[in-house]
Amino acid sequence: MIDGYRQAWTLADATLDELPLDSVGAVPWWPADDNAVSLHHALVRVVSDTQRHAGHADIVRELIDGAVGMEKDDASLPASDPAFWQTHHQRVEEAARSAQ
Questions:
Q1: DSSP structural state of residue 36
Q2: What InterPro entries does the record point to (predicted)?
Q3: Nearest-CA neighbor of 27 among 38, 15, 12, 16?
């Protein structure tokens, strides 16, 4: 799996060295009438998909070892204080209502 990722990384680097971001290619597994994509669009998709799936892996890891957050002694999570959450909820609710 790691070797496959390294091969994809090498190919991606070569592609970025050779082509401008507005180059258009095709994603073969997308529908033929909607598979044209710029290199820029493809890069954004890869970054987005990578962070999303890395987040999934982190959730699985948290379920396995019970640890949360970025560091053992600092969960980087918001306070569990009910007053914090009430204030946070009110702030989000006000923002949502003002955006309507």
A1: E
A2: DinB/YfiT-like, MST-like
A3: 38
The separation between CA 72 and the C-alpha centre of its own chain, rounded to angstroms, equals 23
Number of domains the chain is built from: 1
- Residue 75 vs residue 81, higher pLDDT: 81
User: What is the residue type of 1?
Assistant: M
Q: Which residues pair with 71 in a beta bridge?
A: 74
Q: Would residue 100 count as lying in a domain?
A: no
Residue 78 lies in a domain: no
Q: State how far the alpha carbon of 45 is from the alpha carbons of 12, 37, 56, in Å.
A: 13, 10, 16
Tell me if the pTM is above 0.70. Answer: no
Q: What's the domain range around 20? A: 2-73
pLDDT, greater one: 27 or 71: 27
